[in-house]
TrEMBL record:
InterPro entries: CYSTATIN_LXN, Cystatin_sf, Latexin. The gene is Lxn. This is LXN protein. Residues 1-99, 119-212 form the Cystatin LXN-type domain. The lineage of its organism: Eukaryota, Metazoa, Chordata, Craniata, Vertebrata. One of its GO terms (molecular function) is metalloendopeptidase inhibitor activity. It holds the Pfam family LXN. The keyword Repeat applies. It comes from the Eukaryota. Keywords: Protease inhibitor, Repeat. The keyword Repeat applies.
Length: 212
């Protein structure tokens, strides 16, 4: 039977983490960072022989413009007995997301015109500060980390991106931009800080892809 969950309780927030991560992987870019502002409603249902499904109503915000929010419904299905399978996430957003086209194209053209590959460390820095020229690099990692979080989430975890330790651009002969990132993920339940490496491809027309 389906049951309502208090939106503020741990199970709702843990299920919201991979949902928000998946959405940000699909819709995020160097010009648009989506973060979870609030869980409005939550429900849970055990499906015999399949797993446990959470139904969520979420509010997402643009992390650079907190006044820009979008409502969203999501379903997260955790598969029974197998924690190595990523949860299934379905979502719909209501209303318009902030247009990121101009910011995306500006970043794309800036990186394409660099004489040397972009390299940077510790974003944000120890004071939590991200420089304006590194903000798109940060938002790209924010979107890409959504893939890693979604793929590795279970019912008992709640990951978030803590920091980019290192990022290095990889030269390519095609139109894509490629970056190798070392990121730190904070797992809120165990309080572990876990380093991850990810290779990220991005193009303004084709979105974010984590290839490794």
């Amino acid at each position: 039977a389906a049951m309502e969950l208090p939106p503020s309780h741990y199970p709702a927030n843990r299920a919201a983490a991979p949902a928000a991560a998946f959405i940000r992987y699909r819709l995020g870019s160097p010009g648009r960072g989506l973060g979870l502002r609030a869980v409005r409603r939550a429900g849970r249902e055990d499906i015999d022989g399949v797993g446990r499904k959470y139904r969520l109503e979420l509010v997402l915000e643009d992390i650079l413009d907190k006044d820009s929010t979008v409502n969203c419904t999501a379903e997260v299905l955790y598969h029974l007995g197998n924690e190595n399978i990523a949860p299934d996430v379905q979502f719909t957003t209501e209303g318009e997301l902030k247009n990121a086209e101009e910011a995306d194209n500006t970043f794309y053209n800036r990186v394409k015109s660099l004489q040397k590959e972009l390299v940077a460390d510790n974003i944000p820095d120890s004071h939590g500060h991200v420089s304006p020229e590194m903000e798109p690099v940060h938002l790209l990692a924010w979107a890409a980390s959504g893939y890693v979080i979604w793929q590795n989430s279970t019912e008992n975890t709640q990951f978030q991106l803590a920091q980019i330790k290192h990022v290095k651009q990889v030269k390519r002969s095609d139109e894509y931009l490629e970056f190798d990132y070392t990121i730190l993920l904070h797992e809120l339940v165990s309080q572990e800080i876990i380093p991850w490496q990810m290779t990220v491809l991005w193009h303004p027309q084709h979105g974010v892809q984590v290839t490794r």
